[in-house]
Amino acid sequence: MTKLPNIGKPATNALQLLDINTLEQVVEYDEKTLLKLHGVGPKAIRILKEALSENGLTFTGNPTKSASSGVGFAVFCDFDCDNAPKKRIIRDYLVASASGDRAALESVLEESFVWTVPGEFEIKGRDKFIAELVANLQAVSILEVQSLLSHGKEGSAHGTVTNKKGKHVYFSDIFTFQSNKPDAKISKLTSFVVIEN
């Protein structure tokens, strides 16, 4: 394994947040996504490219693991969801909720959607949920989804959202869909959230 070159402390810290500590791990990601990480700039990417080249490596950009997603922050997730429509819906929900994309949220949530955070609160109605989400939106740097599962009318996901200040929100979401149909919308969501102090 080849250690990361000297790309500066902010860039090194940003990569280490994703457990990227070697050049061999860097090649699993595309440079556009890495550029969206808070602390990683064009100079760090240039240095990484040079080090990769010197070691016979290149950015391969594995589209099933990471993508820029066009939302202004890096998304690390299993993007190989084409044969699992509900996994794709969950992934789209996670990206839309992190970015506050109202249209995308409306496309995956049914009108009578219910969001519960046990021991904290329950919000009934898609429009109320979206309004609450947008009112409390954070500037996101990274959305990392560690697991994404679906089966029948149910699904789950867990991961980490890192804001622009480097603080983490760890989440575990349990989804219930309207029906078993592949294009069913999300009807209920139970979220367990831990916010880093």
Automatic annotation (TrEMBL):
<keyword id="KW-0238">DNA-binding</keyword>
<protein>
    <submittedName>
        <fullName>DNA-binding protein</fullName>
    </submittedName>
</protein>
<dbReference type="GO" id="GO:0003677">
    <property type="term" value="F:DNA binding"/>
</dbReference>
<dbReference type="InterPro" id="IPR032710">
    <property type="entry name" value="NTF2-like_dom_sf"/>
</dbReference>
